[in-house]
Amino acid sequence: MGDMFYGAIKPIFERAEELRKNPTEDEKLLWLYLKRNQLGVRFKRQHPIWMYIADFYCHELKLVIEVDGSIHNLKQVMEHDIIREEDISSFGIKVIRFSNNEVKNRIESVVERIKFTISELTANGTNTEKQD
User: Fold this and answer.
1) Could you name the CATH architecture of 3-124?
2) Could you tell me the residue ranges of all domains in the chain?
3) Within 10 A of 61 (CB to CB), how many other CB atoms are there?
4) What residues does 94 pair with on adjacent strands?
């Protein structure tokens, strides 16, 4: 399993597989722009990271992209998201978030922000760090 999954266990992998089989409409839309290295780096869908599953993950840049539905506006879910993001960030991974609404109604702007983040991480040498 190695470094790429940060100690994720079998049930997380099984859940990730289920999620890959049943993406949301907004995840499907964003995936059209991320798949097949279209932005110059490889993204994986529903990727296990420790005890979490990232919507999209680029291991080369250590970048997670999350697409949040309206449930993420609930206080309890927002609190969980903060902890989740702190945990994922503790592995040196950058997390960027978009709402379903942004993906659905402003996909060009979402893709531009992702491209900007990719160029920022590339310029900072994030993708040239030694990967164990």
Assistant:
1) 3-Layer(aba) Sandwich (3.40)
2) 3-124
3) 22
4) 63
